[in-house]
């Protein structure tokens, strides 16, 4: 499902359930040692998806630690993102360079809790959400907006190593083309010397009771000459 949102250079693997009793991969136990069973299962399955995706780009199975801000610790030369929510786990990876960063997120197609909405939605987005609810009430657009901002942050953070508050990105959703844009309201200077992140583009889909979003920051592939 999520591969529909990603370019061909990105490999995605997803799962809609867990394997009962599946053990934690060696080297990852410390990250779920105190987790409740549901959290442990989603961690194990999502990491399995990540290793399956890594295998498709030529990487042997490795532990994928949890780095700062919960970001996956990918092997050298890899960019990627992981997401999990009730009934869904997924990972997307690519070789570093093109793309420069990936962010994916999945959420249940349910209303966003009011207290979360106050933290996520800015005034400029409220009229848009009201129009979208009228146009297609089957989609919980506030939850989709939240998911889009999660994907934006997951692509933003590896390139900047700086926080990005929900209110520091304005998202415009395009329901016709199932795309969105996020205008960044703080300094987007990148650590890799690439163009500052001022506007990120993403795609979304609504399927199987889920809203799924993805952001890919283009990179600059290295050309080979004879």
Quick take:
The chain is α+β, with helices and mostly antiparallel strands. Helix content is 27%, strand content 26%.
Spell out the key features of this protein.
226 residues, globular, Ribosomal Protein L22, Chain A, 2 domains, alpha+beta
Notes on the protein architecture:
The chain is α+β, with helices and mostly antiparallel strands. The protein folds into two domains: 2-104, Ribosomal Protein L22, Chain A, CATH 3.90.470; 106-217, Ribosomal Protein L22, Chain A (Alpha-Beta Complex), CATH 3.90.470. The protein has four helices and eight strands, in the order E-H-E-E-E-H-H-H-E-E-E-E. The strands form two sheets. The chain has a five-stranded antiparallel sheet with strand order 4-8-7-6-5. A three-stranded antiparallel sheet has the order 1-3-2, covered by helices on one side. The radius of gyration is 17 Å and the shape is globular. The N and C termini lie far apart (39 Å).
